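Predict structure. Chain length: 256.
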Amino acid sequence: MGKRTVQVALLAATMVAAGWFGATKLGADQAMAETTGAVQAASIQNAVTVGAEGTIKVEPDVAYLSFGVDARGKTAQEAQQASAAKFAAVEKALYETYKIDKKDVQTSNFGVQPEYNYTEKDGQVLKGYLATHSVRVAYRDLAGIGKLLDAVSAAGANRVDGVQFGTEKQDQYELEALKKAMTNAGAKASVLATSASRTLGPVINIVQGSAANVPIVTPNFGIVKSAAASDAGASSSVQSGQIEITTSVTVQYQLK
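Prediction complete.
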């Protein structure tokens, strides 16, 4: 009986001790959390956060030409065969005359759909089918874009959906834009610090935003221009201009 009493007493003492140590640890954790929060709050109070952009304008080095062939027929098969015949001539101009690599040519749209006429008497009446085959071509001879459009037009392409200029050096130009963004961020933060009678300290945190590439797009009037240019004995003229690459950053600086 005495032995059992001793065991119970020891167990109770152990539980009390465990509870005391647990409470002590909990109290220490809470104190640490409060201290960390206070430090963070003080850090925020002694910091300035600014957002800035960096933009550079560069010459494009690639153009993406979108054009295609539309062909009609009384049946879907007839329309598709007519489209295939025209497009074969377009491919010959691309691959044989202009030596364009096949990896730079991608089909963007292909299909056959019915076309209807509508009258009050008969309602919707099938008049035939339209076959469409469109491609997107990456072309790097920017000075020769007009001649290429003339060539595919003469070969059978009867629709140009547009020309978009871009760059294949996106990563390189993005780094340059980032440098400008950081310079602009530093200038903004310096003005704010001076206005607050403080001194700008080191960078605490940086968040990079996504880069935006603003391409130049020429609308779909290429075939009309091409036909007119052919009559005048000159090739179509397409201007490449410049493209803008913009990056953004959010930077937090310490204030002294």
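Summary: The two ends are 72 Å apart (CA to CA).
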